Every structure is written in C-alpha cells, then in structure tokens.
From TrEMBL, chain A:
This is Phosphoribulokinase. Residues 65-263 form the Phosphoribulokinase/uridine kinase domain. Its EC number is 2.7.1.19. One of its GO terms (molecular function) is phosphoribulokinase activity. Pathway: Carbohydrate biosynthesis; Calvin cycle. Its main location: plastid.
Automatic annotation (TrEMBL), chain B:
This is CP12 domain-containing protein. Residues 22-93 form the CP12 domain. It comes from Gossypium tomentosum. The lineage of its organism: Eukaryota, Viridiplantae, Streptophyta, Embryophyta, Tracheophyta. One of its GO terms (cellular component) is chloroplast. Coiled coil: none annotated. Disulfide bonds join C37-C46, C79-C88.
Length: 409, 93
C-alpha cells in the first residue's frame, strides 16, 4: 500500500499546491497526489525556477508495530530506552505539547503508552470498583482503530492519560513513525490489536523479584513500608493473574526474570536468572542460540580463559514448549563484572543480529547506568532490540519499492 | 556513581510541584488503602485503593528516574514556549 503523508501544505514552497483527484488512472488502491505550481506572482523571492517534484514510494512506509507487555509504567522503562537506542537517537516526549504526555519520540520510533486508552480515569475506576488492570477500564475499540490507522500511515489524535492528576487530558497528534511501539498492560489482550503486531514481547517478572524491585523503588517514600509494598502487590495479583498474565502465551518473545539459583536463599533480587523464551516459526525472527541450534547446552564461561568473581555466570540453552508453542530458551544466571566477560559471552552467541562484532557489548556499555546492565535483563533486552531492528529491516526491504513520481504540471 | 538529589535535574517549579504532589499522594493513598481494606480485604474497594497506590508510586519513580538518570526536566520544552506560567518559574534554592 502506498502512503504519502502530507500533513499541511505550509511546509511546501508557497507556489506549490496539492490536489487529490478522486480517481486514479493507475488502477491501484492508492491516492494520487498532484503537486502543481500556481502561476501567481506572489512567489516572492524569485523562485521562478523548477517544478515541484515529489517522489512517492509505494510500500516502504508501512509502520512496523511492536507490542510490549510490562507492568512497570509506560514508555520510560529501561527496555524502551535500550530499544530506541539500538535504532539511534534518544527518545523524548513530544516537544511543546502536554508536559505530562506518556509518549516518547525518536527519529525512527514512537512509543505509545497504552494507559492512554483508559476509558475510565482514576475517579471513574474508583466509582466502578475496577483497577487499571481490568479490561473494563480500557477502550480496546479505540486502541484497535488508532493502531490500525497509524499502521496504515494515517495520523491520529490520541488521548492522554495523566498519571499525576489521574485524568484524561486533551489528545495529542501522533504521526505514523517507522516503528510504533505500544507499551503497557494490555498490548496483546484484544485479538484485533494482536493481529496488528509485527512482534510482541512480554516481560514476566516473578513475584519474588517484583517484590525486591518494588522495595528498591518505594522504600524511600514517606508512607511506604514493607507491609504496604507487599499489600499493594497482593491486592493487584488477582486482576494481574486474570487479565495480564494470560497474554504471555501470545508473545513472540518472553523475558522471564527470576531469582538466582547460584546463591542459596538469596532474596535480595540483585543477582538474577533471566530466561529469553523465543517462539519458533515467527516470520522475520530467528531465535538466538548457543553453539548448536536446537540442541541443549549448559555453559559456564568462567574457567581458564575467563575469570569471574562470585557468583559467576551460568548459561543454558535448549528447545522446549511453552503454552503449547515450540520455543527455544536461552537462559543466563549471574552477573557480568567486567567488560571482557561481556564480550566473551557475546562472541559465543549466534543469531544475535549484530551489525558488527561487539555491538551488544557496546550497547550495554552505552547504558551502563541503566538497571540490569550487568545481568541477563540488560543483555536480553539489548539482544531483543537488535532482533527487532533486524525484523524491521527485513519487513521494509521485502516490500517492492516502486517509486511513483508526480512531477511538474 | 553519585546520584544528585532530585534537584539535580529539576529546574522548574512545576516539576518540584509535581514531585511534592506525588509524594503527598503516596502517603495519603497508602493510609486510605489501609483503612478501606481493614473493613474487607477482599473487596473491590480494597484492590482499587492499592492499585491507586501503585499508580502514584510508579509515577513518582518515573519522575525521579527522569531527573536523576536523564538529568532532564520534562517541562523544558513546555517552558520554552510558556515561560510566564507559575509552573515555569525557575526555582533556585
């Protein structure tokens, strides 16, 4: 499908105008846009030269849509930052708009927070007795319509859910990016939305790790205590298990975060065991593997060539089934202490879709201050980011680029 | 790695206001949740109350992260266009 998006004519030379005839003579389902030059003298600064030549390419402007299910807030999570970094540039809130917008925009990507599709604001949810996790608090029809529109190259006015006030603010304009990421609690809940996703990820944090992370997050806050943090997790658990958790069976990749098995009785949640569960047979996605694809491997890289400090690093790789799907699982338990450990591990992984040797390490170092930079969460988030880049490139190059030229009158 | 206090990145009054507002909300909503749940721990009201606590706790953490790690005040571009508003007073302390 050809998409030529022209939002306003102000950005064009004032002597050019756009006309969109109702019928095309090409026989395709695409709008033919004609740019012509007005023969008025208002052209101002002597630009009597040249026609307005606009080139429109068919097929390469369809937006690639990625879904990310996470319970950790929106668009500001570490995963999103790593992902946008792989594509280059930093993701920032839209300039000049609502300062409480949840949206992040970089050159290639736009990250939308699905909380913006709440049908009930904080007061509304309180009245109805539903949590934000409940589907009844969310407008899936609108979510579907807008994601579909953006995917097909049409800009939308998307609502803003303000997390500070708990209200729904006036909408903001979202223009179709090259890559749209929808992040939140329910990216895969609605079947129609699911079908729009080119790739989906579910971040599955185990209860023990969730508790440890929320302690780190909240303990410094006045009002919070271990009890309140625990009570909050427990109270949300029934809705979480009923509405959020079941989405993981639809995900193309699940990043499962568990307590380490390397330290007996560890409950600090600092050393982590992370499993990257990758669905087999997903278009444009070839799972990462260790040494020999499809076999089962246990690997401890620390030894003669590499010295690691306690508790070390342990890898596991192998095929498995997950909710009835064939998957490959790559698992890392432990921490990286030094740069050379990271590069050593990277050099033994296959199908990581890097463009040069050491790219994973470089990306990890670039964000050494992000949480998870020394363990499997950072490693697998980075690798998934590279796989998404690979998927994007495959999708965009697989479309035939048949340039159309609308030239001067 | 030294982490500056919140004011490491906070430049505008509006950000300080939001930070304070969120802190107060957390405290208030935790108290509310405890009260509501005392009556009936399994009620809808109880789980909604703790969900609100989660929402504001996360919002506070996001703000803190943006300021401490990214050292950016998210009101920056808004305040460039609206310097005269109360929110955009530069707070010095």
């Amino acid at each position: 499908m050809a998409v030529c998006s022209a939002y306003t004519t102000q950005s064009l030379n004032s002597t050019c105008s756009i006309s969109t005839p109702a019928k095309t003579h090409l026989g395709f389902h695409q709008k033919e846009v004609v740019f012509y030059r007005r023969s008025s003298k208002r052209g101002g600064s002597g630009s009597s030269s040249g026609p307005c030549v606009i080139t429109c390419s068919a097929g390469d402007s369809q937006t690639v849509v990625i879904g990310l299910a996470a319970d950790s807030g929106c668009g500001k999570s570490t995963f999103m930052r790593r992902l946008t970094s792989v594509f280059g540039g930093a993701a920032e809130p839209p300039k000049g708009g609502n300062p409480d917008s949840n949206t992040l925009i970089s050159d290639m990507t736009t990250v939308i927070c699905l909380d913006d599709y709440h049908s009930l604001d904080r007061t509304g949810r309180k009245e109805k007795g539903v949590t934000a996790l409940d589907p009844r608090a969310n407008d899936f029809d609108l979510m579907y319509e807008q994601v579909k529109a953006i995917k097909s190259g049409v800009a939308v006015d998307k609502p803003i859910y303000n997390h500070v006030t708990g209200l729904l603010d006036p909408p903001e304009l979202i223009k179709p990016p090259k890559i749209l990421v929808i992040e939140g609690l329910h990216p895969m809940f609605d079947e129609r939305v699911r079908d729009l996703l080119d790739f989906s990820i579910y971040l599955d944090i185990s209860n023990e790790v969730k508790f440890a992370w929320k302690i780190q997050r909240d303990m410094a806050e006045r009002g919070h205590s271990l009890e309140s943090i625990k009570a909050s997790i427990e109270a949300r658990k029934p809705d979480f298990d009923a509405y959020i958790d079941p989405q993981k069976k639809y995900a193309d990749a699940v990043i499962e975060v568990l307590p380490t098995q390397l330290i007996p009785d560890d409950n600090e949640g600092k050393v982590l065991r992370v499993r990257l569960i990758m669905k087999e047979g997903v278009k444009h996605f070839s799972p990462v593997y260790l040494f020999d694809e499809g076999s089962t491997i246990s690997w401890i890289p620390c030894g003669r060539k590499l010295t690691c400090s306690y508790p070390g690093i342990k890898f596991h790789y192998g095929p498995d089934t997950y909710f009835g799907n064939e998957v490959s699982i790559l698992e890392m338990d432990g921490q990286f202490d030094r740069l050379d450990e990271l590069i050593y591990v990277e050099s033994h992984l296959s199908n990581i879709s890097t463009k040069f040797y050491g790219e994973v390490t470089q990306q990890m170092l670039k964000h050494a201050d992000f949480p998870g930079s020394n363990n499997g969460t950072g490693l697998f988030q980075t690798i998934v980011g590279l796989k998404i880049r690979d998927l994007y490139e495959q999708i965009t190059s697989s479309k035939t680029a048949a340039p159309l030229e609308a030239t001067k009158a | 790695m030294t982490i500056n206090a919140m004011r490491g990145g906070a430049k505008y009054k509006g950000t300080q206001m939001r930070d304070k507002q969120l802190s107060e909300m957390i405290e208030k909503k935790v108290t509310e949740a405890k009260q509501v749940c005392e009556a009936d721990e399994t009620s809808d009201e109880c789980k909604v109350a703790w969900d609100e606590v989660e929402e504001v706790s996360q919002a506070k953490a996001d703000l803190r992260l943006r300021l401490e790690v990214e050292k950016k005040d998210h009101l920056e571009s808004f305040c460039l266009e609206n310097p005269e508003t109360e929110e955009c007073r530069v707070y010095d302390d």
